[in-house]
Amino acid sequence: MARDARHNTMNKPKRSNSHEDISLNPISKVIHSKPTSHGAGQMSFGAKDDSSSMLSSSEYIASSPYYNASSAISVLDLLPLTFSFLHGQIGSTTAVSIPEQQPTVAHTKELSLPIDFLPGEEDVKLKEYMTYRSHKHKVTHQGELILTKYRLLFVTKSSESDQILVDVPLGMISQIEKIGGQTRSNISDSYAYGIEIICKDLRHFFFGNTKEQNQRRNLLDNLNRLIFPFSICKEDITKPLAFFSSFFAWNYKKKMCPDKIDEGWKLYNKVKDYTRMGIQLNGDAHWIINNEINQNYTFCDTYPDTLVLPSNFDISRLQSVANFRSRNRIPVLSWYCRQTYVTITRSSQPLTGLNRKCQDDVDYLREIANTNVNQGSKLVILDARPKVNAIANKANGGGYEDYPDCELEFQNIQNIHVMRESLHKLHLTIRQGLQEDKTWLNDLDNLNWLFHIRAILTSVNRLVSLVRNDKRSVLVHCSDGWDRTSQLTSLAMLMLDPYYRTLDGYMILIEKEWLSFGHKFFLRIGFGNKIYSERSPVFLQFLDCTYQLLQQILFETAFEFNEKFLLRIADYLYSCQYGTFLLNSEKVRTDMKISDYTMSVWTPILNDRQTYLNSNYNGKSEQILQINTLYQIKLWKNYYFRYIPDYQSTLDIEENRTSF
User: Fold this and answer.
1) What is the rounded distance in angstroms from the CA atom of residue 574 to the CA atom of residue 235?
2) Which of 233, 478, 545, 576 is catalytic?
3) Which of 2.30.110.20, 2.30.29.30, 3.40.50.300, 2.40.240.20 would CATH assign to domain 126-232?
4) Predicted model pTM
């Protein structure tokens, strides 16, 4: 009775979106079995510079109260359609079917180009005669712009040979911008009219064409149809074939292994990883592996179907805890140390609002703290957000734990919008430096991008110190618990657990803390859609932070994998050659039968292990990593600079040195 009373007092106002991804654009439809929130929006408040507290819409919008759960399209989901209609833009964006495939204009085998096309890359979708100008050397080339299902090429033609000047996967393309027009029509310079293609990996290309017969308009229409199909017709993630056939991953799978599941999809076994940590298969006095409560993802549609929960907590009370947590993402186990009983758990924010309470949530956290039998003291909670953002969330139905049995620390990591803007500034600085030929390299270390990398690693250092030195159990969350939370838990596990520093272990870490726990890759990467409001380089920051650890002299023997491995993952993240990163949650991947339609990104890596191994690795080391000084953090030049003309990668230098 008392518990029912508590449950009734915490009925929270409904919302359609929560911190990490509110969208006022028609990016996605409701995909879960329960109506759920989508996260942070494109609106932001506060100072504009990245080091300030830039609040996302759900962090400071009174009209967006938190909502936990379930099955209808929300009002905010309909706003984009209304907005577009009022502005005459509704067009085909209301459709839920995949746009008609672009007709084939040629076949790659007919091109006779000096390139090995991939299996499944037989059809040429576009060929257009254009000019291409190199940004660095300002040299103009005449040739053909060619698009297959996988890539964009620019090829110069001559009597002697063909030369490929541009080769970029379509999934890598971020924006297509018109350059020149009526306002510049009096400029005779042919460079002033055409299109610029901007890529997610800092590459950018300018292609010039004539102003006759709507050539540019037709070209833009064709490019948008091929590269951003979901900006034309909204994606339908209830129809696997219609969805996956928009990506090259589907064509590649049909050619490579049409009738079997490739080995990469079998790499991660949840129960095996938890038992490796020391959790008993049938449970013990502290923790139990539960594969029933979230069966069919009915308890939490953005969590995996297998969860590790405190053994001594009444499972009938968990629904009350879920109702009090954003998106039903209750605290669950991420990592466990069998020697010290210390744990890292993860969740979303509590929905405390201004005065709501939930005794079941308080008791649940106390039970998590009690599993640490050697340090059965207060649970430490690391809230990844700046405090001002958390307070703003509290005013709008979200909040944080002001519990007597917990110690709360805010970590001051900025939201997805600030991170997106920071990466944009890094891209812009590099591009302007190339074009203006200034001594800009020395200024890069002062950019806010590295400020954010340091902020993430500072928080991870704190988490590792609490677990290793103080033997304290720690709960980590941000707002919805799938962006900054994944960064902190995965990096801490990488530093604490040598297994995750092996090649297989790192891939499993990504499967576990990022893919199965619901990082929204489809939205954060922006697959097939040119809308920006949900994009953010959250996972790229994780790879960057891993690189920062990898390049520390003290850790040169601690990792089985090398930098090439990180670069390969970064490329596969955008390429759309594999299906691993194409969707937002384990539930959607399961419903869409992703392994039937695409290959796993891990399969080519497993088949080419030697390329990604660190020759200095000491497999017997049980070293726990901590960064003693964050001044050693530096820009990942082999990633951000690799397409800069005349830049020589340190990996190439190392290969040349070892070849003698």
Assistant:
1) 18
2) 478
3) 2.30.29.30
4) 0.84
